[in-house]
Structure formats: C-alpha cells, structure tokens
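Question (not urgent): is this output format expected?
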Amino acid sequence: GESIQFTNKTKLAIIDRLAKKTKNDNEFRFVSFDIPETLRRNRNQFRRSIKRMGFKQIQKSLWVSNKNLGKLIELAAIEYKVNNYVVYIASSNSNIDTHINKIL
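Got this back:
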C-alpha cells in the first residue's frame, strides 16, 4: 500500500545512469527537435539531458549517438514537456557515417 514518488531531478539522474550503462551497437540514433522559443527553458533542459546521455551535435538541431536510448529520450522529452517537438530515428547507415564515426 505504500508508494514512492521521485522528484524530477531524481528521474533525470536515473535516466543519465541508465544511458551511461547502455552499450554501443551498430546503429546510429538521431534526435532532431524544433522546440518553439516560448519553451526556451524546456528546450535548454532537454538539450542538456541528451548531451549527458552522450549524444553529439552534428547540425543545429540534429544529434547522434550509437546507443539505443529511444525510451530514455522519450522519457526526457515527456519530462520537459517537449515531446511534440522531438523526433527519434534509428538507422543502420547514412551518407554521413564517416563524419559520425569521427565525432563519436
């Protein structure tokens, strides 16, 4: 009958730890977002979160990782209330693989 409720800070700390324990694989995961200026604070918090997860920026609003972090990205986007503006894509190859491998 008892329950525990985590604070937002605790939820995000758990997401960060899970991301660090996730192994690299042979696919690239891209996160792209176009979050309105009215949600600047949320956008900045989401950006910091994906950076802590290990995503690297390859264009202004395009980030890449070689870890399967889709569920964690979804949780962070929901937590920061920006999920309607975030796209997550998994790809086994792209025309910029060489560039991606250099930055990861």
